[in-house]
Fold:
Amino acid sequence: MNDSHYCPHTPEEIAEMLSAIGAASVEDLFAPIPTELRAKTLNIPPGMSEFETFSRMQEIAGENVQGITHFIGGGFYDHIIPSVVDHLANRSEFYTAYTPYQPECSQGTLQALFEYQTAICRLTGLDVSNASLYDGGTACAEAAMMALRVTGRNKIVLDGCVSPFSREVLKTYLFNLDVEVVEIAPLDGLLNRSLIADVLDDTVAGVLIQNPNFFGSIEDFSALANQVHSVGALLIGSVYPISLGILKSPGEIGIDIAVGDGQSLGNPLSFGGPSFGFIAAKKTFIRNMPGRIVGETVDRNGKRGFVLTLQAREQHIKRHKATSNICSNQGLCALRGLIFLSSVGKEGLAELARLNRDKAEYAKSLFAEIPGVSVLQSAVTFNEFTIVLPKNADDVVSGLLKKGIAAGVPLGQYYSGLESCMVVTVTEKRTKKKIDQLVDALKTELADVRF
Amino acid sequence: MQLIYEQSTSGRRGVKLPASDVPAAAALPGALLRAEKAALAEVSELDLVRHFTNLSRRNFSVDTNFYPLGSCTMKYNAKVLENSAALFAPFHPMTALLPGGVEFCQGTLGMLYDLGQLLADITGMDEVTTQPLAGAHGEMTGIMLIAAYHAAKGNRAKKKYVVVPDSSHGTNPASAAIAGYEIITVPTAPYGDMDLELFKKTMSDEVAAVMMTCPNTLGLFNPHIKEISDIAHSFDALMYYDGANLNAIMGKVKPGDVGFDVIHVNLHKTFGTPHGGGGPGSGPVGVKKALIPFLPQPRIIKNGDGRLLLETANQGSIGRTANFFGNFGVMAKAYAYIIMLGREGLIQVSEQAVLNANYIKEKLKGYYDLPYDMTCMHEVVFSASKQMEHGVHAIDIAKFLIDRGYHPPTVYFPMIVKEAIMIEPTETESKATMDAFIEVMIEAARTAESNPQALHDAPLTMPISRLDETKAAREQNVCSVR
Structure:
């Protein structure tokens, strides 16, 4: 019985094929599976038409509350996505291909990934990159493991201002390895510089910082880079790619390995994925990089072409001695990142970064005028900043959420003692009107506070 | 083709940004600013569209070519899945993590929960986490769960080894290594499966887990799988199922029923989501009851009223393996795929995948060496050893196929077969397509005898001929400096 248009054979064709095989029935082909091991049930509901399937998916999407205005980030950001991104990345020659093992018939993907690696190198000011990692958190973990390999040491120092999610992912990855992870508690939304000096010694493989950090603060890490290098360790920086339109690049700071989440580059929020992780490093570390790398070469006629290179690092060759277990990456999301960056372009990315900062600074100035509200950090910020409220931030955020505004990320569950703080994110998509509405709504929410 | 950067003209823009409606902020201190803007492309929208459209035309893909890449399950990706995933684009993952936020995300959390239930039934497991972002990420998560299980019993130090067959995917040992294990590799016996006697000798109290792909990478179902599970369990070693080859067995056998304790599922293989030129995939992990306490956080649970909640404070959990809830968009596609095909459809998928692979096996075994000549599951592995007598290698046959419009099968894997040619047709290909492919494979075998040079010269019809891979590795030009 052929009831699926995705399995195209007619009963006659099935009969012909079985006859060629010399089997009496399709069931005969499953004879290698001992009868006593066979499945007794499969409790999957009956199938449905394409139309009904899509209707069901619409219903599910409809069960989420619609039209929330986002002033939240936490690693995922609500940025514009130029129309070309969807149209080009949705060309099925891109999205129904796989890892370009056969370069002659995969030059489209390979050249695009080479251009992507180039964009990441230019954005970060570093020399080499790869064809993408999974997300920002796993990229932090891969970078830490890279630092362990490069230095042969077994200690990682974590700035507590790094996203709590990325820190958790990193700790999960390193838990079973013989690695010590030292975490430095933040000081007013900044790296506690006096504590870092105490832990830096020649047993440290790498120090992970984030810029701008989870509180939104921008710091100058150039001196830290020198300090880290002086003990032979590597500085790993998790960065927000949109901010690199204006901020000092990791390469200029002296960061050895830069990582980050690429969602903000042309990938929708999509409830947390797929996005991509990016990684870039100084050239000397290339053999310790995880994942696929595309390299330029020539063909038999001297014509330029692109190919997966340095594969001797990878799991399909090196197995348990590979630099990483990663196989499938997030290639299509990285392609979206490339198309986004090429559409916005050199001038546009700087303009976009400024626009984000302008909007956030405007919001920050209004918040600072609300009685009882202050800004946590004295440091400058990009498109996120932390405000201190005159009451528990969880209550404020849940109250505003009921009014359709995701006003910020309360910090209490991530940092004890900061229960009255929340991080507010303002991207270029938030109009002045929406920002004003947020500020008014917050004032109303705080109306019951007595000073 | 030129690089996008080689088409740049200073000052050209590809998209207009919104004008600012707020005052300009005070300038940042110079020490925090980059010296020069990043040298991204500067092209018009039309130039951009032509560039990427023309690049896409330099790819083989499932939508343009038969793509029998073994172990990758390159089936057709239904278009309604793309439309379905797009419905979820506006939902911010942080919303669910805000106080009271889960009430705003019942649809998306519910879909993840329901997908977990469906996958648990298909695989015979008790609970599924949807957090892992790809197959290898799932493997790593699964082995970490096993490590946590042994640690909870006080056996972490004693249990030092993970056993894998030599036919396993490279990700298996690589993932186990991240979980801190040493690897023991067991050879394949002449009957095509892990050597049972050697396996028995390998097993001890120090083994934490046995990782199996079943059917294995030779496309063969291991009839001793239950015995292997029983032996492993007798040493308190857990059984890990690499779900890369699940496409062969849906509704036919459930890994959980034959003794597996942990499984990852590659949604981009079995459940019809596209491969994206390398990803995104998605690698949900299913476990038996004993491992539920260790699942990654946040864990999606359902209360008595049917409302979805997030468990975030379980101290026994291995922690987070990714920043949010996994590759949600990929999971939306897989969920749509499962509900659309339904019970009968999924069974039919496995039946026709197996039928197609056996058909190709029978039609080609007179022309190519078939090292393990028995009924296969979803894929078949030939060897180009006969063609080697004429100096023709698997890679030459692969390149010949490209000239005929076919994406080559997987070659040189599994490593245990010399000059391996691993063909996985999948269930979505028609008999006519396979017949045409079979003809071309036969033509390649004949050409290997009559004119081996023609195979060495291939491909001739692509934008480039064979590339100098040594030069690429030596020069390491991975970023354009122009």
About this structure: Chain B touches chain A through 210 residues (CB under 8 Å).
